[in-house]
TrEMBL record:
Full protein name: histidine kinase
Record CDD domains: HisKA (cd00082)
Organism the protein comes from: Phaeospirillum tilakii
Domain Histidine kinase: 105-336
EC number of the protein: 2.7.13.3
UniProt enzyme class: transferase
SUPFAM superfamilies tied to this protein: ATPase domain of HSP90 chaperone/DNA topoisomerase II/histidine kinase, Homodimeric domain of signal transducing histidine kinase
Amino acid sequence: MSFDLFDAEEKVLEQAESLRGLLADTPPPLREGVEALIEAFGRSVREQRRLVKVSDRLQAQLASLNHELARRRAEAEQALSDLEAAQDSLIQAEKLASLGALVGGVAHEINTPVGIALSCASLLADSTETIRAAYQADELDADRFERYLDTAGDSSALILSNCRRAAELIGSFKQVAVDRASSERRRFDLGATLRETLASLGPRVRQAGHAVTIDCPSGIVMDSHPGALSQVIGNFVINSLIHGFDPGQTGRLSLAVSQTGPDQVRIVYADSGKGIPESDRGRVFDPFFTTRRGSGGTGLGLHIAYNLVTGPLGGAIALDPAPGGATFALTLPLRAP
């Protein structure tokens, strides 16, 4: 279209040149005015041609820039997708590592009562075999039999109490492990779930010498995801053990539960450790942020807790700004969305 327009203008210029010749005998003012008009029209045509060329060049550059922008956007989207996939993989690995730590700790804890029960059972078996031999040889007297009864009674009591202890540990760990390994939603007693979670972490806490307290009213029933809640509390405890206390330092870990409404519960976890520096408080829930990068810290523990609380649990999580120790407050609906 522009070239057709310029062709018409060129024809007008040719006609103007012819007109210039016809004006040779006209008064100078008229001839000069027409010549000035012809010159101005010629300059206008040349400027339009230049602008069209500039416009064509700019359009070509713009098309090239749009193509490059689309390519880089596709690369950025792919990089973001790869990053999200890698982050999901790391988070899953962190969850499995947390469950693995529970397995090791509970296995170590179960070993004590099972070992005691095994020793007592072995002693009882030896005593029974000895008393059997004495009976068969007709050498069993009342004093010897009474000593055997005392040994049998003490051994049986120790075996029974330690087997019960092992059964309790196995039951707690089994429920916690099943909940964490699945995203099942079910009704559960909040206090029982919190106690089971801390029982499964007990070996690591006691090994560090910390005291643990739970203040939870009875009868609070939630329709939610106990595995997610257990993971959150477990991450709090592990975070305290790794970051909250210096080696050899002992302290206190506490859970306080209160029902703040007919459909809402508040869980406050706190430790008496050295706390979180003011400069780090705004980043504790960021992925991969850790102050123990070279000492086993991944920076995903509190990030996972944040995602679980605000995701499947449908609640909110906040870090208490008060100095001294670390305190996290969870506000959760009794019925998850």
